[in-house]
Amino acid sequence: MAQQATILISPIPLRLTSIHPAQFASPKSRTSSISRSQSRTLRIRAVQDVGGGGGGPPRRLVDIIRLVPDLTRGYFRSPSRRALFGGISLLGGFYVAQTISLSFGALGVNDVIAAVVCVVLTEYVTRFYYSRPKVTFPLALLNNFKMGFTYGLFIDAFKLAS
């Protein structure tokens, strides 16, 4: 005869068959309470951890999102990480330039419009970069992307000219 266990973690009780109640034995450090009723049904109730796990109040999603800028500033303090992401940004701009040049050049449709959009975006990034009194790291990454983009377009023009 199969025993049944009722798990009350969600508002809808779930029935599990062929499970012995001893399989649900948990250490005392967990935050769920286990009780047995007289009908040999095992009930597990989830309890909210008031301590938040780290000893402080429970974290909300907004609090975690507000921590992201400080965590990224701390992550990018290392000069090697800055150089790595600067190189990735440069190569990313080169890749985007090659992709745009290949897709619009192969089709032969709207390639003039694509060239105008590329020039306008490059000039806007240049103006935005040099109008700021202080260069921040995300702004430097944007400028690296622009340099890689421009370099990719020049290399593609040299390939077409030969």
TrEMBL record:
Keywords: Membrane, Transmembrane, Transmembrane helix. The keyword Membrane applies. InterPro entries: Uncharacterised_Ycf20 (IPR007572). The keyword Transmembrane applies. The chain crosses the membrane at residues 83-106, 112-130. Pfam families: DUF565. It comes from the Eukaryota. Belongs to the ycf20 family. PANTHER family: PTHR33787, YCF20-LIKE PROTEIN. This is Ycf20-like protein.
